[in-house]
Design a protein that fits this description.
alpha/beta, Ubiquitin-like (UB roll), 5-stranded parallel sheet, 12 strands, elongated
Length: 377
């Protein structure tokens, strides 16, 4: 029997969040008595370090304390295995072409649910493409820097919708049903497990975003802030303080964050501001579960494609095409130019919508005419 197996020890496990902060947990393993080989495990410390320097300082303190207490010290970095790169077909429903066709039919109803006027349909498409951009942002945003030598917003979009009092209830119902239909879970079951619901809060009395969404290591009592990645989440802004929402937005940079009824100055980065007057749902007769199945197939196809070099090259070319399209728009007389940050989000939304429609066409869910019709709007 190796000597290290019977020595008391403390193990540091740490991981990195997408905003550059770190989670840390200390596991202590001690012998039940001096003659026993059985080890008793307990968790003695849980914390979040805002920077790598602070993490390093904390680990050094723990290591010194271990030496003073006669413990063996161990440390290991682990990953938050959330995101499209970690999911596979076993995480979703089996392919069913009838369900895909049905999903497209319901999606068309959704796109027309706030009216068939061109302005209303465009606003629903802005909402739709903004949410879907959360699935693509982690892949696409680095390409902005590669092509344009600047990453104006190094994150997925933030969408803000502040309804008027008279439209509050119908807008609340519409946005809630929309987020449930367009988000699929992209977290896996690993040492670090996640609870990442599609909207927050999850119940009455939750004053912190971390009460409804969190990571945990081994046991749920070892809770840490959540990590949404390659998906979207809806936050009801009136339930939380400005600082808590800001921290949540910063940490979950690779997920679209939709803020409903946002407090003033809640976001440090510019947001896509949606018009409540154009998002008054006139028809709720669309099936969110059928649309969700369609989004599942899209997310699954994306998880496979992003691992292929040819696809990354294709995305680079398409991003250039979108950039040229925006330049042609600006070249028109009497057109008010977009702000640079607006251009960034518009390019991301345009490209995401184009790739989603191409994915549906490749899977023979729609034909060329249907794809061009949606793109023209």
């Amino acid at each position: 029997m190796g000597e290290s197996k019977i020595k008391d020890r403390r193990e540091v496990r740490f991981w990195k969040y997408d905003d550059g902060s770190y989670g840390l947990i200390v596991v202590e393993r001690t012998r039940q008595d001096q003659s026993s080989l059985m080890m008793k495990k307990r968790y003695v410390d849980c914390r979040v370090c805002k920077t790598k320097t602070k993490l390093k300082d904390e680990i050094e303190k723990i290591q010194k304390q271990c030496t003073a207490d006669g413990y063996v010290f161990q440390k290991k970095k682990i990953k938050i295995k959330n995101g499209l790169q970690y999911i596979s077909k076993k995480d979703f429903s089996e392919k069913n072409q009838d369900k895909e066709k049905c999903g497209w039919g319901e999606l068309e109803k959704f796109l027309n649910s706030c009216g068939t006027d061109i302005e209303n349909k465009r606003e629903v498409l802005r909402l739709f493409s903004g949410i879907l951009s959360g699935y693509y942002a982690q892949v696409l945003v680095p390409m902005f820097y590669k092509i344009y030598l600047i990453a104006l917003q190094n994150r997925a979009p933030v969408l803000v919708l502040n309804p008027s009092d008279k439209r509050f209830n119908v807008t609340f119902d519409f946005i809630s049903k929309t987020i449930k239909a367009l988000t699929v879970p992209t977290h896996t079951k690993d040492k670090l497990r996640s609870k990442c619901p599609p909207f927050l809060p999850q119940g009455i009395g939750q004053k912190s975003l971390d009460q409804g969404s969190f990571l945990w290591y081994k046991k749920k009592k070892n809770r840490f802030p959540s990590q949404y990645r390659d998906t979207a989440v809806l936050v009801f802004g009136s339930f939380f303080s400005v600082n808590k929402i800001r921290r949540f937005i910063e940490r979950n940079r690779w997920a679209t964050v939709v803020i409903f009824n946002a407090p003033a100055k809640v976001n440090k980065v510019p947001a896509i501001r949606l018009s409540d007057s154009l998002l008054v749902c006139l028809d709720f007769d669309w099936n969110g579960e059928d649309i969700k199945y369609l989004i599942e197939r899209f997310a699954l196809s994306l998880s496979r494609l992003t691992k292929k070099k040819k696809f990354v090259k294709k995305l680079t070319n398409k991003l250039r095409e979108v950039g040229d399209c925006i330049l042609r728009y600006h070249a028109q007389k009497g057109i008010q130019r977009f702000q640079p940050t607006e251009e960034h989000f518009i390019a991301l939304q345009m490209l995401t919508l184009q790739l989603f429609l191409e994915s549906c066409q490749d899977e023979k869910i729609i034909d060329t005419t249907q794809r061009k019709q949606v793109q023209s709007e």
